[in-house]
Amino acid sequence: MIQTKIVTIGDELLIGQVVDTNSAWIGKQLNEIGVVVKNISSIRDTEVDILNELDDSEMDIILVTGGLGPTNDDITKETVANFFDTELYLDEEYYQSLEALLIAANLDMNPLNKAQALVPRGCIIVPNSKGTAPGMHMIRNNQHYFFMPGVPTEMKQMMLDHIIPQIRNTFQLKSVYHRTVMTTGVPESELAIKLESWEKQLSEQISLAYLPNINGVRLRLSCYDGDESLKDEINNHVNYLTHNHSDFVYGEDDQSLAEVVGKMLVERELTLATAESCTGGHVAHTLTQNAGASLYYRGGIIAYENEIKIEELSVAAEHLYEYGAVSKPVVLNMVRGAVDKFHADLVIATSGIAGPTGGTEDKPVGTVWIAVGNRHRIVTKKLQFGNSRERVIRRTTMTALNILRNEFLKK
Amino acid sequence: MIQTKIVTIGDELLIGQVVDTNSAWIGKQLNEIGVVVKNISSIRDTEVDILNELDDSEMDIILVTGGLGPTNDDITKETVANFFDTELYLDEEYYQSLEALLIAANLDMNPLNKAQALVPRGCIIVPNSKGTAPGMHMIRNNQHYFFMPGVPTEMKQMMLDHIIPQIRNTFQLKSVYHRTVMTTGVPESELAIKLESWEKQLSEQISLAYLPNINGVRLRLSCYDGDESLKDEINNHVNYLTHNHSDFVYGEDDQSLAEVVGKMLVERELTLATAESCTGGHVAHTLTQNAGASLYYRGGIIAYENEIKIEELSVAAEHLYEYGAVSKPVVLNMVRGAVDKFHADLVIATSGIAGPTGGTEDKPVGTVWIAVGNRHRIVTKKLQFGNSRERVIRRTTMTALNILRNEFLKK
After folding, report:
1. pLDDT score for A55
2. Minimal Cβ distance to A288: which of B24, B192, B281
3. Residue B84: exposed, middle, or buried by beta-carbon count in 10 A (0-12, 13-18, 19+)?
């Protein structure tokens, strides 16, 4: 098995000022070509820590990100040169390509940019189409070292355009097969019980992982070096889950719920609008993160103030007075008002107490009303999402989209 | 110096299905009490990998998260018991507290929950007020091991309520001092040049780090075990940056730009509304993520379709026809329309091509118009944010908020 590790360099990672998202992305890309990452390490920006990680004879591939930026706090390149008993030199060819790039972008060749063309002797330069810092590939004793900038867009194109193809050409890779099913609305332990009898039927060579995050729980089925029958088995399990638990299983892999709902709207040639209070634009943002949302999303209103609910969505003032803004009559009003306003086939409406203040004994922080529908039919739901503002906003969005999805499934 | 490392357990981290946000959070908390994390490692959910990380005589503190969940893919507890040459037993006291918790929540004591009360002999149980899995504290040869669940809310309360106080009581901690200044709108290399002469004046014991992310670049000034004069120097530098570069320096530490703008609105007793096209609700969401947004945010409209721009914001149809939706006249119209609609003192309006499609030669993907103001004065800006949909949306939001902030600074 090919031994691989990822090293991310930067004090900012260790003191928690930056979350390392690069490693997860790299891990995922490698996993798809059958390279299993054994270890991810984040280390400080010091020579001794960097040398310590580079000096690892167990590894066939070491991928390093960070520490190649133009500013003065980066010492990676000098350390790499030391580690390989060589020196930095100005690569004339790279320098010229850099110059051309800067001229095209109407920028000056300042000393910081010029220093980018310094690389250790013996390295193969990995081109950077999104920035000025070159990537570097060093080989010694059949160990492959790849050094990349920490800026995600620059790192990603280097991986996709150069490093992944290089790894595929160099190593004999074993096969990996997995599929992931996305669920929402059911907590992990409840889900495990719902799926207990199904889980017992899995072959021993298939592993199942529960991967919870703020939006739901993903279920990953994997096998390594499996034959076709194992892959078929995984496929059958995915089909089973998708068909028999469609109320909470909404898709596969990294499909977002908004994407799935968007596709359903396009297929049915229906349009959607939003009328939000507690989610403050998050439902709209979640929908419009998807390219192509303009095919079905007409627009939305954030009726944060009660006055706006009355004026813009024709919410009855007496309903607000009698039941409060977080109530079934008000979200019903909001749907009807928004259908008219946006000439939309369907509307999602939300009203709740996102917190941390504004709760009462009757309606504690986290109480949310959702309504989804149109003039003919509206589904409403009352929920309790606890006392984290972020969680209330996100769960409300996911639940509202899932209600809409389940409405489509019924027909 | 106290040697500390963080270990996160889970195959899902290594294959990139989950981004490790726990480590950054833990690193930050420790840093605040003067504990510098030397290493963060993510490893697979296997006995050999876990044992390998636990067996580290260099470390005084080892913090482990993950692998304590109720489902079957977790083997951490057995491995911990092996490592400490002990066995798992059912802790009666914990079991009873668990039972009480489940009864209160109207849930059953299922076998998965019962297994949570199994812990290695000799461990000190760290209570979990947010879930069912207990934390564990083991001590051997003056090394302190803390095991926590991977669920962020559970891990966080254990750290804050028990583990941080425990570390403070056990170790003599050295002092650390840093301040971080938040900037937006200026790329890292340009920023480095703008600040070059200032940077040269920093004392040698003060380190400066540039920390770029999608919202801007943070500048962190740090000193370890420094005397008062060094701290004063850092404070003076922060004042200098805040006052002399206020156009792009918007705040400190982890203040968000939306928070800063919100505070300015409250101080001036002004209200704000939004009229969004390309940002699709993201400006509103960014504003309303802040608790207390209801003090100044009245509401907003997402006018995704041109028809909505005309009907709801009184955008002139001939302007849309003549100049297109992404144009100065249209964003000016949008501000004026939204001021009337929401009776707001100020409005932010956006219109752009978020991509990946919809670009033309004249207006390529990434072209954005922003307008900020009211009936009396409107500032407009045309920008180009490139071809990533996410980046176009986020940068547009940041730029719009920064334009508003700069307007307040002028007065």
Report:
1. 94
2. B281
3. middle
CB-based contact A189 B213, cutoff 8 Å: no
pLDDT greater at residue B173 or residue A301 = A301
More confident: B31 or B298: B298
In this complex, the residue of B71, B220, B285 whose CB is nearest that of residue A17 is B220
As a whole number of angstroms, the distance between CA B303 and CA B312 comes to: 8
Minimum Cα–Cα distance from B195: chain A residue: A71
Identify which has the larger pLDDT, A216 or B241.
Answer: B241
Q: Report the C-alpha gap between B152 and B65 in whole angstroms.
A: 9
Which DSSP state fits B175?
P
| Helix, strand, or coil (residue A2) | coil
- Residue A272: strand pairing partners: A297, A346
pLDDT range class, residue B72, cuts 50, 70, 90: low
Q: Which residues pair with B7 in a beta bridge?
A: B41, B64
How many Å apart are CA A153 and CA A131, to the nearest integer?
9
- Our CA dihedral for B145, B151, B156, B158, rounded to 10 degrees, sits at -50
Q: What is the tens place of the pLDDT at every residue in B196-255? A: 999 999 999 998 988 877 888 999 998 887 788 999 999 999 999 999 999 999 999 878
Tens digits of per-residue pLDDT, B362-372?
Answer: 999 999 999 99
Fold classification of B4-170 (topology level)? Molybdenum Cofactor Biosythetic Enzyme; Chain A (3.40.980)
* Phi, psi angles (nearest 5°) of residue A218: -95, 145
Give Cα separations from A187 to A131, A213, A217, A395 (angstroms): 42, 10, 7, 12
Give residue for tokens 């991977």.
B150
Q: Which of A26, A69, A192 sits opposite B112 (nearest CB)?
A: A192
Least Cα separation, residue A221 to chain B (angstroms): 11
> For residue B7, which residues of chain A lie inside 8 Å, CB to CB?
none
Alpha-carbon gap, residue A35 to A33, rounded angstroms: 6
Who has greater pLDDT, B355 or B62?
A: B62
Structure tokens at A231: 């892959």
Residue A349 is encoded by which pair of tokens?
Answer: 């409406």
- B153, B284, B304 ranked by CB distance to A281: nearest: B284
The architecture CATH gives domain A257-410: Alpha-Beta Complex (3.90)
> Where do the domains of chain A lie?
4-170, 176-252, 257-410
The Cα–Cα gap between A224 and A175 comes to: 6
Amino acid at A172: Q
- Distance to chain A for B295, nearest Cα, Å: 10
Check: CATH 3.30.70.2860 for B176-252?
yes
Residues of B in contact with A14 (CB under 8 A): 27, 31, 36-40
Residue A7 has φ and ψ, to the nearest 5°, of -125, 125
Between the alpha carbon of residue A383 and those of residues A62, A247, A324, A405, B45, the distances in Å are: 47, 17, 16, 18, 35
Which residues of A are less than 8 Å from B355 in CB distance?
Answer: 291
Task: Give CA angle at B83 (B77, B87), nearest 5°.
Answer: 60
**Mean model confidence pLDDT for chain A:** 92
Q: How far apart are CA B119 and CA B147, in angstroms?
A: 11
Residue with tokens 């009229």: B275
Q: What is the DSSP string of B45-97?
A: SSHHHHHHHH--TT-SEEEEESS-SSSTT--HHHHHHHHTT--EEE-HHHHHH
Q: What is the pTM of this model?
A: 0.81
Cβ A272 vs Cβ A298: under 8 Å? yes
Question: Percent of chain A at pLDDT above 90?
Answer: 73
